[in-house]
UniProtKB/TrEMBL annotation:
It comes from the Bacteria. The keyword Signal applies. One of its GO terms (cellular component) is outer membrane-bounded periplasmic space. It is found in: Cell envelope. InterPro entries: ABC_transptr_periplasmic_BD (IPR002491), Bact_iron-sidero_bind (IPR051313). Belongs to the bacterial solute-binding protein 8 family. It comes from Paenibacillus typhae. Keywords: Signal, Transport. Residues 92-349 form the Fe/B12 periplasmic-binding domain. Residues 1-37 form the signal peptide. One of its GO terms (biological process) is iron coordination entity transport. The keyword Signal applies. This is Iron complex transport system substrate-binding protein. Residues 50-69 are annotated as: Disordered.
Length: 349
């Protein structure tokens, strides 16, 4: 029995592990790291890196602030998705938007620091984020002191969990702070709003239009192959195994490409699963995202080396695929384009 491993858009074949056994445990997916707002967990290394490396919020080839204001009029007052009102007096030049780097790249903007986990940023974006210091979120959000050292003039939090436990109150004292409920689940809204906040509305519209054209083309190519079929993503990290529903790669499959979800996650973003429920996996295609930065290898082996794994119809049919966790667990136009490329290569080559 074989699986097909997708890595950076390339497929390679290899033997599926032969024996298995574990329960699938789940947790809320946010930012591919803990969303616990442990902002008191200060780190001297990130603080020093942030203080010593403060890149411009604009690449050298970008238009001037004066040109940008033709799109957005400042002062600009908006209300975020949690009901907080904020006012930007001028075009933001120093933006801190952890785990929204994907969208900033599409808009042609470099942040003052980038999200990282265990010292690793989002690998698929690093060619566009050269020189941007890493800020580790492994133990929670950075402290207000660390964020203050970045000297941001706009802070954007990509989901509501990031604003909990007093984080919003602390951060909003440093700079105007906008909070999304879940930016990765509504690209049209989040990319458009980012474009409005930073005077990049035209770039936002162009990026979204190109993305939607790709989605429509992919839907047409996949339709003959996926009629009546279901798909499921299983994510592995140091905490266990998770069935992914409608976020990140799951959002692309279900909401963008129109591929039906497994009944197990029909109404869930993630799901804790016991060993007894494994036979209930009803997906025709299963994608395995091993979160290597978060030590998912142990749980991956426990699952794929179990005999029970062989009883799942998708496994018996050879429809199990290892995919690149670096963007299947990412959120944004760049990540979602990569996911679409993988799905097309696997299902409609």
């Amino acid at each position: 029995m074989q699986d097909i491993t997708v890595s950076a858009g390339k497929i390679r074949k290899g033997l599926l592990p032969a024996s298995l056994g574990l329960l699938l445990a789940a947790a809320l997916l946010s930012g591919c790291s803990s969303d616990t707002a442990n902002y008191g967990a200060d780190s001297a290394a990130p603080a020093a890196a942030a203080a010593n490396a403060q890149p411009s919020a604009e690449p050298s080839a970008e238009p001037s602030a004066a040109a940008q204001t033709a799109e957005t009029a400042y002062p600009l007052t908006v209300t975020d998705e949690l009901g907080h009102e904020l006012t930007l007096e001028a075009v933001p030049q120093r933006i801190f938007a952890p785990y929204l780097e994907d969208s900033l790249v599409v808009l042609g903007v470099k942040p003052v620091a980038q999200w990282a986990n265990n010292g690793q940023g989002q690998a698929y974006l690093q060619d566009k984020l050269a020189g941007v210091p890493l800020l580790d979120f492994n133990s929670g959000l950075p402290s207000p002191e660390v964020v203050m050292d970045l000297q941001p003039d706009l802070i954007v939090l990509h989901n509501a969990n990031y604003a909990e436990n007093g984080v919003y109150e602390q951060y909003s004292k440093i700079a105007p702070t906008y909070v999304f409920k879940q930016a990765a689940g509504d690209l049209d809204s989040s990319v458009t709003m980012l474009g409005e906040l930073i005077g990049k509305q035209e770039a936002a519209a162009e990026g979204l239009a190109a993305y939607h054209r790709k989605v429509e083309e992919a839907q047409a190519a996949l339709a003959p192959h996926m009629d009546g079929k279901k798909a499921l993503i299983i994510r592995f990290n140091s905490r266990g195994m998770f069935l992914m529903g409608g976020v990140y790669g799951g959002f692309v499959l279900a909401d963008q490409l129109g591929i039906a979800k497994s009944d197990l996650v029909a109404a869930e973003n993630s799901l804790e699963l016991s060993l007894e429920l494994l036979p209930e996996i009803d997906a025709d295609y299963i994608f395995l995202a091993n979160d290597t930065a978060n030590s998912g290898e142990t749980f991956y082996k426990e699952l794929t080396e179990s005999a029970l794994w062989k009883s799942i119809p998708a496994v018996q049919a050879g429809h199990v695929y290892n995919v690149d966790d670096r963007y299947w667990l990412g959120g944004g136009i760049v990540a979602y384009n990569n996911v679409i490329d993988d799905v097309l290569e696997i299902i409609a080559p």
